[in-house]
Task: inverse folding
DNA sequence: GTGCGATGTATCGGTCCGATACATCGTGGC
DNA sequence: GCCACGATGTATCGGACCGATACATCGCAC
């Protein structure tokens, strides 16, 4: 999961660890608190060993021209490689059952802008299926096994059931919208240079305040 | 977390691993899919090493009287010890910040029937605090950083924000109810024997269909 | 001038998951 | 009669991720 998220983020722009964590937290804030350095750094090393990312010199030209002024030391900037992009595409294409659990789905959804419509649809439907199953499980417990459980446990199940029903409706909406044709796939920034000084208006359509 | 859940469940009745997993899944179905044997068995061994649970012979008397009839073999039944109960009480009393994340809160909430009112209140308020913080974070992103993110990521944040607001309201209700005095604490079954043939009506008040 | 919060990199122990292996029991179809 | 299959049941292994911790620098406020 982390691997996927890192490759996805680095496709937008090269970053160092700290920055990566902040962006990750912003992008995934809805689904997980904040990823730990205890996972981040080892994963970065793993990705580097696999050749999917490389250490990029910290803007070496400018660093020599203006050495003292922005003399940040010790920062290690990572950028994605061609193999890394391939790997990312492959991870999207695979998108199996593990993609339907809470975290897996959230992370994949966060990168839907880089995912083709067919895969988006597949993931959304897989997720819906999974949530429907969870919903049925909760209904069963609330129906058949209710008298075996205490009031608090039941209340927890009710709240969970409510969340399931809500998410299914949300997914239905997204699926319907997806089928009706809207498809704001991002072309591709970064890798070649850029370094996020550019704030090119984040791609095309966007449709703010109109649920995608 | 697993440690806590196991000690809590074994307080209701002795169980073997498989049963434990099923009960755990039923009780925690709203918050986590199903716990893995890869965590369950090692944890059981850890708890046993610490002296908080013991292997109980599979109803040894009955097994010798009616040997062939219910000749289940290889089943290892665990029961909680006095130290284990103490440990459980201690884990409830500690109930620190780690109790306020999604899983931690869910598990503790599932055992609220065995938790004193003061601690229940403390946990509910801690959880509310945490969710409020997450909510503010999401509002910030949706407000200030919105134009940096694509439509899908924004939709994810909106959905997350909605879930936060909903949970805060839910917690408010629970807190108000808690303060107003309802307190269905479970007295204590199991440990002494019983083996779940008894279906003593699950404690007192219950108040079904009336949110606790 | 100095202390403190943000920035920044990194490791270690521990919890938990997913895949896998393997054995038994009861039941329904052939 | 038998046998396949799904439920019951115990168990391990590698890997992902977290939380605590350590340590160093930067910029600003007091």
Result:
């Amino acid at each position: 999961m982390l691997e996927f998220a890192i490759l996805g983020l680095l496709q937008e722009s090269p970053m160092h660890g700290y920055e990566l964590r902040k962006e990750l937290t912003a992008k995934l804030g809805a689904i997980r608190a904040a990823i730990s350095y205890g996972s981040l750094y080892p994963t970065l090393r793993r990705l580097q060993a696999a050749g999917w990312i490389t250490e990029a010199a910290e803007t070496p030209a400018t660093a020599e021209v203006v050495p003292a002024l922005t003399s940040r030391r010790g920062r290690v900037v990572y950028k994605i490689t061609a193999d890394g992009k391939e790997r990312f595409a492959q991870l999207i294409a695979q998108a199996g059952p593990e993609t339907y659990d809470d975290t897996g789905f959230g992370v994949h959804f966060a990168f839907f802008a880089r995912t083709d419509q067919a895969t988006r649809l597949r993931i959304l439907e897989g997720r819906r299926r999974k949530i429907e199953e969870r919903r049925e499980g909760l209904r069963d417990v609330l129906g058949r096994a209710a008298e075996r459980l205490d009031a608090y446990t039941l209340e927890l199940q009710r709240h969970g059931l409510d969340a399931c029903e809500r998410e299914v409706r949300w997914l239905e909406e997204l699926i319907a919208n997806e089928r009706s044709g809207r498809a704001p796939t991002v072309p591709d920034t970064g890798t070649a240079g850029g370094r996020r000084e550019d704030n090119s208006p984040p791609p095309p359509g966007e449709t703010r305040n109109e649920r995608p």
Summary: The helical segments of chain A are 2-10, 17-28, 37-50, 60-65, 82-94, 102-110, 117-143, 151-179.
